[in-house]
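Narrative of activities, Objective 1.

The group set out to show that a structural description can be obtained from nothing but a protein's sequence at a throughput compatible with the screening campaign. Below is one input-output pair from the validation batch, recorded exactly as produced.
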Amino acid sequence: MTEWITTPGLVPYPEALHRMEEIAEGIRAGTHPETIWLLEHPPLYTAGTSARREDLIAPERFPVYEARRGGQYTYHGPGQRVAYVMLDVAARGRDVRRFVHDMEAWVIAALDEFNIRGQVREGRVGVWVERPEKPRAPDGALREDKVAAIGIRLRKWVSFHGLSINVEPDLGHFDGIVPCGIRDHGVTSLVDLGLPVTMEDVDMALRRSFDRVFAPAG
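Output recorded for this entry:
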């Protein structure tokens, strides 16, 4: 049975890292259930294992943390739902590619509850939405904005880190980085897309869609 934790307020990033590792260790030891932790952070940037220094445009703007997860630079802050995912991937088949696919499918299923068609793109991490109302790219392609980021780490086949969905963050805070190293596309949020949803709405959608995507471990 997966345990769900929702923490109000803004959780400092170092505190979250420490708690994630404690939970992951407990899962490995068989003393803690698989866990989904929902929270928000104060404004900050995190650097994944593939982060490039030139993609940190404003290093003095917010604190910058080494996340030790996959991916490049990303932003966390108020109005963004972070879901840290501590699951036993060994008990789920030891298929990392499938696990990442399931993370993407989980976000897409949750967004579908708000009639948002989230999509994935080869070579671009995260979940994207098409913006037909925006001017097309120079090559004539539809503009696409990122609405959710995904970055995980595995240690002894237990996952931690996870995903973030932009509910109503200050989108200007993304200007201090090249989000996930992608310069040709922007970022958006559910409210920016015209949906007056709350964090609680998103939490409920994540909980409802989780069991449709992730079968119980074992």
